[in-house]
Amino acid sequence: MAELRIIKNSGREATLPDGVVEDFKKSLRGRLLRPGDDGYEGARKIWNGMIDRRPALIARCAGAADVARCVDFARAENLVLAVRGGGHGVAGNAVCDGGLMIDLSVMRTVRVDPARRTARADAGVTWGEFDHETQAFGLATPGGQVSTTGIAGLTLGGGWGWLARKYGLASDNLLSVDIVTADGKLRTASDTEHADLFWGVRGGGGNFGVVTSFEYRLHPVGPVVGGFVFYPFAIARDVLQRYRELTRKAPDELAADAALLTLPDGTKVAGIAACYCGTVAEGERLLGPLKTFGTPVVDQLGPTSYISVQTMLDASYPSGLQQYWKSSFLREVDDKAIDTMIAHCTAPASPMCHGLLEFQAGWCRGSRRSSRHRVRGARRPARFPGSGVVRRSGRGQAVCAVGARVLGSHGAVLHRWRVRQLSRKRRGRGGRAGPGGLREREVSTTARPEGAVRSQESLPPEPEHQAARRDAVSITRRGRIAAFDRPAA
């Protein structure tokens, strides 16, 4: 077999001798795929059809030992590295061109401890699979709104879901992770072990290492009141104003979205989707007015199972479509924002385009909460956390329409915000230049502060117990990994 063409971290093309590739293949328990192998095309494709990249190698890892071997190999050969969990990420970071793709999708075990109300799940598990196991015991944790989403990417990015206003983000319910860091070592990170690393992975993304399993806190979740109601597009303004009033006084048990979209039969509608995780009687009282408002085109709102709510949007987000999303924050869903959203969605460039509002204020900013993950003294520029823009195109289409999406409170992106502040300061103080001139961020050596880090504050000192010299994990902004020795502060 001919030598394998690869792309180095520097961006330079090179080749790997066939013997090196074969030795690497023999060291893995899972399959190693290269272009032309059976299964390669399916493994390189992810949920977003816009992403069309071709890794030189795809390692379908069977366990954490395979992951550690892949990290060591990528570091030794200076390869571009990508990590795939559930493969649902819009940005396409799960796939790279010419490098090594670590595919965790084969690792899909979920173990539930109903007595402790915890669950441990491998990084390839989707939320649909996770919910199936936990709901057998009447338990759940916040996790997404589309069941085909992977638990790994969603949790590492924070993790919004229908239960988040009541129980916090997926990252708030994370108890520990098993993670392979850039030196190829498998570590367990929790509040009591590698606590600084554990702080980073809860919302900071995947560049701290490759998480191979997640341990979550579970909550009792029985029947809910949920579903969606669609109304004629002609009364879209009234629908969005009704949604605004609903969310202004919503208890934490209620999460709700509003959308302007086109149904499969071509009918343009304005809709509200909701989930109330409190008592059925109270949920019916709160959401009942939506069923009698106007003349619904579709009404599927009522008492149902949590799994039904978790899967009700799946058909709207099938695999293979070309997706482009964008979002931002609003202080308030005022009439001007409503009119702007309607104007953009009245004549969309494609029937697949839609505008979405997500109300996410709640648990993360509640002053009555005692969790240390809550924002303390952080600025909150948005009363409605994050109104944003969603752009979506159909299969094979290059056109996009603009909608609006409202995300929730500033607290909903707490962990991500804190990590950005940390990385911004590190880059300004002695960060090393990585391959291709990119700036690397030291991420495993900063202690987790008790409050949010503001831009004018100094970084907390490095923990005294750390050794005089250590392997510090360094990550470039494009997701490439390296390791180097540095003296302690």
Q: How would you describe this structure in keywords?
A:
489 residues, alpha+beta, Uridine Diphospho-n-acetylenolpyruvylglucosamine Reductase, domain 2, Uridine Diphospho-n-acetylenolpyruvylglucosamine Reductase, domain 3, Vanillyl-alcohol Oxidase, Chain A, domain 3, 4 domains, six-stranded antiparallel β-sheet, five-stranded antiparallel β-sheet, 12 helices, 23% helix, 25% strand, globular
Descriptive overview:
- With 489 residues, the chain is an alpha+beta fold.
- Helix content is 23%, strand content 25%.
- It contains twelve helices and 26 strands.
- The longest helix is centred in the C-terminal third of the chain and has 15 residues, at 414-428.
Write the layout of secondary structure elements.
Blueprint: E1 4-7, E2 13-16, H1 18-26, E3 31-33, H2 40-44, E4 57-60, H3 64-77, E5 81-84, E6 100-103, E7 110-113, E8 118-122, H4 127-134, E9 139-140, H5 151-156, H6 164-167, E10 174-180, E11 186-190, H7 195-201, E12 210-217, E13 219-220, E14 224-232, H8 236-248, E15 254-262, E16 268-276, H9 280-292, E17 298-299, E18 302-304, H10 306-311, E19 323-325, H11 335-346, E20 355-358, E21 386-388, E22 390-392, E23 405-407, H12 414-428, E24 440-442, E25 469-476, E26 481-487
Helix pairs in contact: 8-11
Short description:
The chain contains twelve helices and 26 strands. With 489 residues, the chain is of the alpha+beta class.
